[in-house]
């Protein structure tokens, strides 16, 4: 699901954005690594550890194992992409903090969390152990990226709902670059294509998906929406259908067609009212087809959509009153 074969990988407005999920800046350039002093320890370590874990590397220029550990430690901290920060303290120049913490040999790395020492290790340990130490202190790396991706998807959904199709497409595209098989992002991208009347491209984007991805509710909802659009395009002129209903309000066939057309136009409340009208007049029409059609709309609109909530309330009152 990546590369030039993918329809959603093509240009869509400004859909060339990338998402740098916690990309690490270079050390010493406002990044995750800095030196501190006795005077700066409270701000650099105690206060900062209330935002994210801070590792303090106690070292000295004459210490051979320190020279082995420090470059590996810096590498792993940068790879952690902001899950932790590293603060280095030269104990020759600033011995008091190490003395207060009872550090008697170096290198020593102490992790501060929430303003307090939480864990630590001594000696030039292997890179793999440093990764394990950071995972133990800050949690697995995937958790942070997953939370960021969910936040990006939520923002993209809000942009799409507000009519900013290109802005939404940029964010969905960025998520697809980070997670090529993210079903919510692909469904959102297809929605952007639909909003731009690019129905064939939307079909292509949803074609030949892995079975598990194809079963995702978001993907299925967009597929049903495309089916509804395709059907509605064959139902005739909505103006002619309105005129027919003005002459004969109980032409349920014309009303059902108009409901389907209004749905794909985004006029959901009006579409629902047409179907509810048919139900009030003749539940037997098309073997209760108006109710079945309304339930299909609910599947596409979503459980929390305002049109779904309103129509479901009216439907319940009609069925159970």
TrEMBL record:
Q: Which PROSITE patterns match?
A: THIOREDOXIN_1 (PS00194), THIOREDOXIN_2 (PS51352)
Q: Has the keyword Electron transport been applied to this entry? A: yes
Keywords (alphabetical) are:
Disulfide bond, Electron transport, Redox-active center, Transport
Task: Tell me which Pfam families the record gives.
Answer: Thioredoxin (PF00085), TPR_19 (PF14559), TPR_20 (PF14561)
GO MF annotation, one: protein-disulfide reductase activity
Span of domain Thioredoxin:
15-139
Q: Alphabetically, which GO biological process terms does the record hold?
A: cell redox homeostasis; response to stress
Name the domain of life: Bacteria
Q: Does the keyword Calcium apply?
A: no
**Family (UniProt):** Belongs to the thioredoxin family.
Name of the protein in question:
Thioredoxin
């Amino acid at each position: 699901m990546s590369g030039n074969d993918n329809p959603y990988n093509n240009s869509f407005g400004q859909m060339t954005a990338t998402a740098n999920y916690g990309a690490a800046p270079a050390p010493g350039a406002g990044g995750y690594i800095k030196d501190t002093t006795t005077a700066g320890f409270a701000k650099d370590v105690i206060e900062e550890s209330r935002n994210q874990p801070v590792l303090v590397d106690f070292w000295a220029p004459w210490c051979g194992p320190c020279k082995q550990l420090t470059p590996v430690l810096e590498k792993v901290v940068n790879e952690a992409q902001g899950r932790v920060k590293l603060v280095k303290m030269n104990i020759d120049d600033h011995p008091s903090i190490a003395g207060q913490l009872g550090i008697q040999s170096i290198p020593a790395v102490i992790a501060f969390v929430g303003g307090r020492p939480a864990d630590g290790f001594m000696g030039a340990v292997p890179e793999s152990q440093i990764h394990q130490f950071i995972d133990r202190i800050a949690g697995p790396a995937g958790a942070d990226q997953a939370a960021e991706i969910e936040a990006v998807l939520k923002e993209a959904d809000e942009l799409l709902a507000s009519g900013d199709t290109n802005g939404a497409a940029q964010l969905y595209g960025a998520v697809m670059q980070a997670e090529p098989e993210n079903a919510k992002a692909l469904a959102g991208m297809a929605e952007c294509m639909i909003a731009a009347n690019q129905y064939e491209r939307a079909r292509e984007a949803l074609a030949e998906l892995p079975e598990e991805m194809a079963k995702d509710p978001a993907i299925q909802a967009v597929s049903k929406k495309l089916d509804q659009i395709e059907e509605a395009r064959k139902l005739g002129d909505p103006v002619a259908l309105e005129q027919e209903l003005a002459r004969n309000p109980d032409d349920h066939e014309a009303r059902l067609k108009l409901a389907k057309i209004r749905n794909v136009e985004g006029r959901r409340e009006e579409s629902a009212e047409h179907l509810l009208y048919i139900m009030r007049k003749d539940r037997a029409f098309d073997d209760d087809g108006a109710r079945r059609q309304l339930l299909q709309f609910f599947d596409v609109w979503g459980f929390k959509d305002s049109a779904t909530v309103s129509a479901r309330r009216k439907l319940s009152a009609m069925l159970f009153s």
